[in-house]
Amino acid sequence: MDRKFLHLAILIFLPLLAFCSKKSQLTAFEENGIYGYKDQNGKVLISPQYSMAYDFNENGVGFSFSKSGWVCIDPKNQILLNVFQFDNGPDDFSEGLARFVENSKFGFFDPSCNKIIAANFDFAYPIQDGFSKVCNGCESVSDGEHSMIQGGKYGLIDKKGTIVVAVEYDSISEVDPETKTVQASKAGSKKEIKLP
């Protein structure tokens, strides 16, 4: 086969392959105060049933508000996970991960709604400087408008979910990005912990 013809065929075929493999991006629409989803041609694929909905992202998933709170759905309207609600919307992504809740425990997921870190903690703070502060035995206490996390034992995980500081401290500071350390306290005693 002529090399020029082969190169031309590849140049024509690659964009076509990229176009065909692009994930379906559904658009949210509102009807009588309830949201559903339409495809690029305006055909209704998910009938109106949500109180709020965002357009599907480039990864082919959408975030919608249902009776059970914020959920991540696929184009077949299957719930992939329950997203942690933050500031009246789905949790924001921080360093590529956001929080989900499963059986009252927190974990992390990626923009395709794949669960990356299992839901093993009573609370988890957003990823910051490559780590998340987590706690067990803690609880959310509301003051009416806001809530705070109180009690329990704290530790630190990395973006893969590996525990890098045991979940056994009464408190733990934010990561100091310059020294890669945290300050932790237990039973009135404080110490500095160097991170990997």
UniProtKB/TrEMBL annotation:
Pfam families: WG_beta_rep (PF14903). InterPro entries: WG_beta_rep. It comes from the Bacteria. This is WG repeat-containing protein.
